[in-house]
C-alpha cells in the first residue's frame, strides 16, 4: 500500500495527537522520522519534521479531518483584539530571551536549543497573545 504525507509536525506530541485523531476514524496512518526528530531536534528542518503518513486511498478523508480539527481549535481561540479565527499557535522570535538563548548556545557549543516561547498569532491583525 502506498502512503502519502498528510501533514508535518515539529514535535511528537502534536504528531501523536493528529495520528490518534485519524486512527480513531479508522484511517491507516503512521509517523515517519519521529525518532530522528525526537532524539535530535536540531535535525527537524533537515529531515522535514515528523511526517504523518496516510494510506493513499484515505488521504482525502484524512485531510478533511485534519482541516476540521484545526478549524475547531481556531474557533476556540479567537483573537481577543479583532475576533478573527485566523489564528495559529506559533513560535515567537520577537522576544529577546529567544535570541539571547540562541546566541548563548552558539557561543558555548551546546547542542540542544533552549525552549522557544510560543504564542497565539492572529494573521489578520498581527496581534500576539498568550494562551488563556
UniProtKB/TrEMBL annotation:
InterPro entries: DUF2007, N-reg_PII-like_a/b. Residues 9-68 form the DUF2007 domain. This is DUF2007 domain-containing protein. It comes from Niabella ginsenosidivorans.
